[in-house]
Each structure stands twice: as C-alpha cells, then as structure tokens.
C-alpha cells in the first residue's frame, strides 16, 4: 500500500521558487500560465497495516513532521 | 556563566560560538552532542548556525526532534536562557519555542554579507547594555526570510518581542536593506517570556575588531549581565 502526500504552500504565502519558474516558462514561450506554485510530493509505503491505520499514520506524520502548519497544507491519498 | 553549545550533524558555527565565549569572554562553555539526554548544570544554551541534518525537509525540521531538544525545550520552559543563531533560529521556530518560520530567501540566492541591524528593543535580557542603535554583523543563509501571520507579528510588535530589524547604515528600515524578504525586515525576535531569542545574523562572527566588527560581542555581553 502506498500513500502519496502532497505538501503545498498555503494560499497567500510567497513562493519565489514558483515565480522564478513561471518567469522562466514565460521566457521559453509558455504563455498564459497565470501562476506556478512549487510543493513537495512524499511517497510512503506501508506493510501490514489496514488502510485506516495507514491513513492515520500518514496524517499523524504530516502533523508532527512533514508539514509546517504556519505555511503549508497537506493532503494524503492512497493508490 | 555556564554555556552549552548544542552540536547537530551539520552544525558549522559551533566552534565560532565556543571561541567567543571561551577565549574572548572567558566563560565556562562546553559542547553538547545532539544525542545527549541531559544538559547538565547550565545558565544558557546556544543553538549554533549550520545546516543541521542537511536542511532536509525544512530547515530545522529534523533537528527539532533530536534527543537533546527535549531537554532544551524543558530548559526553555523552566525559564532558562536559549539563543538560536541562524540555523538555531530556524530550529527554535520549528520547535515552537519561537513563533513564525524562516522560509526561502525572496531572491532565492544564498545571502552572505554584512548587514546593519537596528536594535528595536534595548530593554531585554538579550539587548541590555547595547549602546549603539545600529549593529553591523554578517549574515550567511539561504532560508532567512522571516514569516509569521500578521496577527502574530502584531503581537510581537505590541510586546516588544522584535529585537533586531535589517536597516541601512544610518538605521533606516528600508526594503533596500532587507537581504532576504523578511516580513517587516525582522532579523531577530524573542519569545513572550523573554528568555528565548532567535536571530539570523551571526554575532559570533563579529565579536572581535580584527574581523571587521565587534558589534556582535554586545549581544553576548548582554547575557553576562544576568549573572
């Protein structure tokens, strides 16, 4: 069982990395891209846990370590 | 005064802090490895600069859970003096001992040069006796852009918890003097209780005239006035 954890900057938090990528894309001719935001994707594999238990573990990991609630949101999905 | 300097894998300003405290100020100081479970008898703890745990995930995020941090947090809650410099500031924010977070520099570049700091509150345990209104010392960081929600910054301001702000040589707070995009040019803050301080600039690298500035020494000597 594999979880995908997406960590994204909260709306309104400045993302200089995303802005730089957006500018680079515009320079390369990719027009009409209104905004680029950069986040993290963490893949987590589980063995021997029920789906509920795996989800609970992934959520707890996000809250304790993987995301900083001051600036980041997270979402957990399972394949 | 008895100082402990916490050493994480990737700390690289630990010896600079040791040098200033031991050889410039003749204080009792020792290193404490991050795996220790005891601090021993100390008056102050320093979390030095560096790249603890390679800055993986977020700066300070992994170091914050090092075994010794349980004791540092306990020490801070008991009223002990804790100072976090650069990476140490990032760790203190991740540990929840200071509000806010240090994010990527707005210009995305690592910033390594001297800055000027306006002393915003000279009436704290960390700034008492600082006579100069503007201090000069270096910064060296890629993630020093202080951010906290506006209501948090409002509270910091109202409580006098903002200690240092980036300014021009003449002490003017200006965007041009902001090296990393920090909210309101914030360079250093303390907690509400006034016993935990974090700052991005490096006072330990500006503690002897031969280094171009000894303004940083004033921050260390402020601590000695406590004892």
Brief digest:
Chain A is an alpha+beta fold and 79 residues long.
Written description of the protein model:
The complex is a heterodimer of chains A (79) and B (227). Chain A has 79 residues and is of the alpha+beta class. Chain A has helices at 16-27, 51-66; strands spanning 2-9, 40-45, 72-78. Chain A contains two helices and three strands, in the order βαβαβ. In chain B, helix 1 links the parallel strand 1 and strand 2 (28-33). Chain B has 227 residues and is an alpha/beta fold. Chain B contains five helices and eleven strands, in the order E-H-E-E-H-E-H-E-E-E-E-H-E-E-E-H. In chain B, the strands form two sheets. Chain B has a nine-stranded mixed beta sheet, sandwiched between helices. Chain B has a two-stranded antiparallel ribbon with strand order 5-8. Chain A binds chain B through residues 13-14, 16-17, 20, 65-66, 68, 70-71, and chain B through 57-58, 61-62, 65, 94, 100-101, 103-108, 145, 147-149, 181.
Supply the key terms.
heterodimer, A: 79 residues, alpha+beta, 3-stranded antiparallel beta sheet, 3 strands, B: 227 residues, alpha/beta, 9-stranded mixed beta sheet, two-stranded antiparallel sheet
Helix/strand layout:
The complex is a heterodimer of chains A (79) and B (227).
Chain A: E1 2-9, H1 16-27, E2 40-45, H2 51-66, E3 72-78
Chain B: E1 2-7, H1 14-24, E2 28-33, E3 44-47, H2 67-77, E4 81-85, H3 87-94, E5 101-103, E6 111-119, E7 134-141, E8 145-147, H4 150-158, E9 162-167, E10 186-190, E11 196-199, H5 217-224
Parallel strand pairs in B: 1-2, 1-3, 3-4, 4-11
Antiparallel strand pairs in B: 5-8, 6-7, 6-9, 9-10, 10-11
Number of helices of chain B: 5
Largest sheet of chain B: 9 strands, mixed
Number of strands of chain B: 11
| Adjacency order of strands in the biggest sheet of chain B | 2-1-3-4-11-10-9-6-7
Query: Which protein chains are joined by the largest interface, and how many residues does each one contribute?
Result: A-B, 10 and 19 residues
First and last CA, distance of chain A: 7 Å
Largest sheet of chain A: 3 strands, antiparallel
Mean pLDDT of chain B: 97
Rg of chain A computed from alpha carbons, rounded to a whole number of angstroms: 16 Å
Give the N-to-C terminal Cα separation of chain B: 7 Å
Q: Write down the oligomeric state.
A: heterodimer
Secondary-structure content class of chain A = alpha+beta
Strand order of the largest sheet of chain A: 2-1-3
Proportion of residues in helical segments of chain B: 10-25%
Order of helices and strands of chain B: EHEEHEHEEEEHEEEH
Task: Name the beta content range of chain B.
Answer: 25-35%
**How many H/I helical runs of chain A?**
2
Shape annotation of chain B: globular
């Amino acid at each position: 069982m594999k979880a995908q954890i997406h960590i994204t900057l909260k709306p309104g938090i400045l993302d200089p990395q995303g802005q730089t990528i957006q500018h680079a894309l515009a320079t390369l001719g990719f027009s009409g891209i209104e905004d680029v935001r950069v986040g993290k994707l963490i893949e987590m594999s589980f063995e021997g846990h029920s789906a509920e238990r795996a989800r609970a573990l992934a959520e707890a990991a996000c809250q304790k370590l993987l995301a900083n609630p001051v600036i980041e949101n997270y979402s957990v999905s399972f394949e | 005064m008895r100082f402990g300097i916490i050493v994480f894998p990737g700390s690289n300003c630990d010896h600079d802090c040791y040098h200033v405290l031991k050889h410039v100020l003749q204080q009792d100081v020792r290193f404490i490895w991050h795996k220790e479970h005891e601090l021993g008898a100390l008056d102050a703890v320093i979390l030095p600069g560096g790249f603890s745990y390679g800055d993986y995930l977020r700066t300070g995020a992994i170091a914050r859970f090092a075994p010794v941090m349980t004791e540092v947090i306990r020490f801070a809650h008991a009223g002990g003096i804790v100072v976090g410099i650069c990476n140490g500031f990032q760790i203190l924010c991740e540990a929840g001992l200071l509000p806010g977070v240090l994010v990527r520099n707005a210009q995305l570049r690592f910033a390594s040069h001297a800055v000027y700091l306006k002393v915003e509150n000279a009436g704290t345990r960390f700034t008492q006796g600082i006579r100069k209104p503007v201090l000069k010392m270096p910064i060296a960081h890629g993630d020093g852009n202080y951010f906290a929600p506006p209501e948090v910054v409002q509270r910091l301001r109202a409580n006098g918890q903002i200690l240092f702000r980036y300014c021009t040589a003449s002490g003017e707070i200006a965007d041009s003097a902001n090296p990393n995009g920090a909210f309101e040019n914030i360079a250093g803050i303390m907690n509400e209780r006034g016993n935990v301080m974090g700052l991005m600039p490096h006072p330990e690298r500006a503690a002897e005239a031969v280094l171009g500035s000894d303004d940083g020494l004033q921050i260390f000597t402020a601590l000695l006035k406590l004892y």
